[in-house]
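Cross-check.
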Amino acid sequence: MLDKLSLNLYLFLTFLSLPFVKIIVIWRIYNAKEHPTRWREKLGKPNVARPSGKLIWLHAVGLGEVLALRGLIEELHKNEEELNFLVTSSTVLSADVFEKNNMPKTIHQFLPYDLRIFCKRFIRHWSPDFVIWSEQDIWPGMSSLVSKFGIKQVLVNGRMTKESFSRRNKIKSLHRVIYKDFEFISAQDLSSKKLYEKLGASCTLRTDGSLKPHCPPLVFEEDKLKIIKKAICNTKVWVLGSSHAEDEKIAIQTKKLLKDHNIKNLLVLIPRFPNRRKEIMKSLNNFKVRMQSKGEIPNQKTEVYVADSIGEIGLWYKASKVVFIGGTFSSVEGHNPWEAVNLDCTVIFGPRYSNFNDDFKLLERLNLASQITSSKDLFEVLSRKNCVPISKCLTKLKTKLEKDINILVKDLLFLINS
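Predicted model, tokenized:
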């Protein structure tokens, strides 16, 4: 009784926000938080037709979570080529990058706001045959409506930290009523599985590991890579990927140390949020800098290159052999290391990486990653003459990891076809 009351209260409170939706949309477009031409998708109004045949809908909230779905989509497509896929997300950045790394027979849309009128419009148009939620982003209104329409749903790549559990536990009855309609919840690790149990998940709970290691490499243009290598005359490149201010401080201090020791190389700085470019440029006054958004490419004299254009991270990872993973010196607690590893880069990470705790530890054990705590540590890693060749280690690792995803894919296909 309490569970249903919680859901009804949630639906009532979201209904009260309906008169303010237009104001919210305008504000979000003005602040670049909403797509300027695709915002109607947030109201459940699609911009493309539904493909004929079976449609699998997958949802993840942001950039990292959406890109992590590519490996699962690829495996499902390999097993049943007639399947179509609809991927939804909530952020503008995730849509832009996913478009450049799209998968076969896959459409991207923005998830509508969690109001009944928008959700019904969305489900009636797309009429999905199966729903896959990823990680933590489940909207109670949409999920309950999926159940009302008799559509099976699961949660994959589930991850629950103690902090997120603490927040959700305050409205435990709401989560309990949502999770009961799931076929299963597939958690990334045992700790997450136990926290889902504490939240009252009564469906089948299992542990299948993370989806992120299974993703295909990020795309890049071979012609662009050749132009860059020719322009820098094969100068050694190291990358700070998906950077935040704290990571940039470490990288810039390291670049100064390298310069003082006459070690020539090119730092490619890829900000997580490109709109921070002005702030970043101010911190690079002592270097010869070029910027991608100005149409510039690095040359032999360039010391730092700011790659502030969306969707080019695969290009710069491929141009490098070493990637310093952003977010590992800040409260962000780390970004995905597998994007770099899958493009044959060794990984460097800082002291804060709880988002990818098991991943970094595994990569470190395999000699594919090094942890640092300061710019001095980073300098020592980068000043080594040789990088660890990772191809053989990665092949063995992939063989082991494939067994995990094969079991998950087999069970998903059983549910899709039953």
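The first strand starts at residue 55 and ends at 59. The chain has a mean pLDDT of 91. Passed to J.P. for a second look.
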